[in-house]
Amino acid sequence: MIEVKNLYKGFNGQQVLNGIDYTFERGKTNLIIGQSGSGKSVFLKCMLGLFKPDKGTIVYDGKPYSSFSDEEQRELRKEMGMLFQGGALFDSMNVEQNVMFPLKMFTKQHKKEMLKRVHEVLERVNLDGTGDKMPSEISGGMQKRVAIARAIVNKPKYLFCDEPNSGLDPKTATVIDNLIQELTHENDITTVLITHDMNSVLEIGERIAFLKDGVLAWKGTKDEIFKTEDEAVTDFVYSSNLFQQVREAQQKEK
Ligand SMILES: Nc1ncnc2c1ncn2[C@@H]1O[C@H](COP(=O)(O)OP(=O)(O)OP(=O)(O)O)[C@@H](O)[C@H]1O
After folding, report:
1. What H or E segment, with its residue span, contains residue 190?
2. What 8-state DSSP symbol labels residue 92?
3. Sheet harboring 55-60: ordered strands across?
4. Does residue 36's CB lie within 6 angstroms of at least one atom of ligand 1?
5. CATH class assigned to 1-79+156-221
6. Does 13 contact ligand 1 (Cβ within 6 A)?
7. Is the whole model's pTM more than 0.90, yes or no?
8. Which tens digit of pLDDT belongs to each residue from 101-142?
9. Domain extents in the chain
10. Tens digits of per-residue pLDDT, 36-87?
């Protein structure tokens, strides 16, 4: 669980996050949605410890970041899995080396032990047997699954995903969404996922935080989002054809 309390962040006099209070629950896919420029990435980077908040507290499973020693900060980084747009694999490394990278960086395991874990996670994401392939030799969807395997190889408590579906066809995007959700449930991970993909909201929006101009303008679930009359949210979600179609279908059923 990650509790965010009264979080403020700005750059050069421009306020980006304006006093956010929110709790990201453990074992759930916690989505952050909102228009471009609303502060989603800055929010994520604050939780990753990449940006220092101007004000406010971020509490990781009961422990405020400000109270972490250097060693504890390093330990926390080890507990964070990251999945960035485009997968961000190392082109010069094969699949196995990519997935092994966090183990080499954060653990002192023997190679045999690391290989065992790498193959365990590759199997979990249905990529067994691809360890010696280079990223350029596999499809975009497979690259995402390698990136997911790399993000979970260290058994993270927290998984941060920034638009994990970008560049994928709708069917592959759904496979990736469901895989992230399954891993979140199986391993009781606190997953925080930024998305522009309204299909992802419908698929895995167990908890949704809607940001508008750096403020948490609405929070709820994928079912509640259809019931809300909050204009900021309705303006945003019904600009998507998919949401309009689902709403129309729901109205016909009534
Ligand atoms: N390192 C930085 N220095 C200065 N300003 C920044 C920095 N990072 C982000 N910003 C500003 O913060 C604001 C919010 O950006 P952010 O990337 O969080 O938006 P976003 O909601 O993630 O947008 P998108 O959906 O397009 O990715 C923008 O005005 C951006 O220019």
Report:
1. strand 190-194
2. T
3. 14-24, 2-11, 55-60, 63-64
4. yes
5. alpha beta
6. no
7. yes
8. 999 998 889 999 999 999 999 999 999 999 999 999 999 899
9. 1-79+156-221, 91-155
10. 999 999 999 999 999 999 999 999 999 999 899 999 998 999 999 999 876 6
